[in-house]
Amino acid sequence: xxxxxxxxxxxxxxxxxxxxxxxxxxxxxxxxxxxxxxxxxxxxxxxxxxxxxxxxxxxxxxxxxxxxxxxxxxxxxxxxxxxxxxxxxxxxxxxxxxxxxxxxxxxxxxxxxxxxxxxxxxxxxxxxxxxxxxxxxxxxxxxxxxxxxxxxxxxxxxxxxxxxxxxxxxxxxxxxxxxxxxxxxxxxxxxxxxxxxxxxxxxxxxxxxxxxxxxxxxxxxxxxxxxxxxxxxxxxxxxxxxx
Length: 243
Known about the structure:
The chain is α+β, with helices and mostly antiparallel strands. About 25% of the residues lie in helices and about 25% in strands.
């Protein structure tokens, strides 16, 4: 039986979802999209994503693929999903791809950004981390420059996660408009909690709670137990996946 492989590029607000990955007793982005696809195709659908996002994390360009024995025009899939999915999930594109394509293992890199805001703003609630303390932006930049010197970033992994391979950290920079601070990071792959831990430690350098020397010691321990700070999930956005 012939198989077809479809690639979806997805945008979603993660606020009311318990992350991407399907889980018992929780509503997730994967589950909602799979349920809609199963109605369209009349068979069980399993999505493979470029990577999971945690509860509360948002995506501007998540990528997932699925294989099916039923053919549908890609534009029909996109229109159907956008007509039936909740308004906090949108399908940017749908396309047929070779059977060899795998959203996770074919990925060559990803970009995330994390948003911090320094003045109270209800319209940013749920879409950033509010910091009331004064932040020295130059110190945050110095912290990011220090982190860029290292490929072993295990101190920024989730506790209990130990990966052998080094990270190809391609970009790590800060944008600040006087109110909103965004930290952008592009890498070959990411350890779980890596972006949120990098942000939390850099911000603590910016608020004076951590020195650059202390940050360097944390990084060089290469131990997830040494990187104890983690930023809340609502400020994190998966921006783009590269293939």
